[in-house]
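Morning!

As promised:
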Amino acid sequence: SQKIEQNSEALNIQEGKTATLTCNYTNYSPAYLQWYRQDPGRGPVFLLLIRENEKEKRKERLKVTFDTTLKQSLFHITASQPADSATYLCALDMGYSSASKIIFGSGTRLSIRP
Amino acid sequence: NAGVTQTPKFQVLKTGQSMTLQCAQDMNHNSMYWYRQDPGMGLRLIYYSASEGTTDKGEVPNGYNVSRLNKREFSLRLESAAPSQTSVYFCASRGDRTYEQYFGPGTRLTVT
């Protein structure tokens, strides 16, 4: 079965630096890969989606890369701020329609210290 | 526009009791999902529904049943609750064109 690993359970970095989170998967490549943010006590919130034929996607201070050869996605937050502190989840979309199954990683808890 | 709503927010059950978790979305999405989230394990898919009248098993369906009542509502039922079902349950719906998921606020369930 498909497995997803997010590099570390927790990441602690200095404000202003770039945070880089890793998502690795096994077996076959997904059609889409998504990243979500989750704050304590709340449901996840969608951030970015990248397709299997895309190498990179950007949105404001966020950047996602997708390497199907390495079976890896990297999620970057540039000029990080304490407000970026949250848990970030990577999700693999196994199909090619909105009706497909989605599998989540266990998340990386990011803390940005002032 | 409330997005995805879930009831109840909190529930405590005794082992063997049954209950239904309710979920509704007002975005006219076809696909809806139920997940459970346990510490250190991320979100695990219990069941999903690609459209009204269809449901499919996810990674951890045992001990649960679902009903897609109509396009808006997707309920999750625990027929005989067990302590292993203590968890936070999230419902989500999915955009038909954008593919992103929208999550509800969650139901925190404790089974004693």
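Chain B touches chain A at residues 4, 29-31, 33, 35, 40-45, 48, 50-51, 56, 58-59, 90, 92, 94-106 (CB under 8 Å).

Hope this helps with the figure draft.
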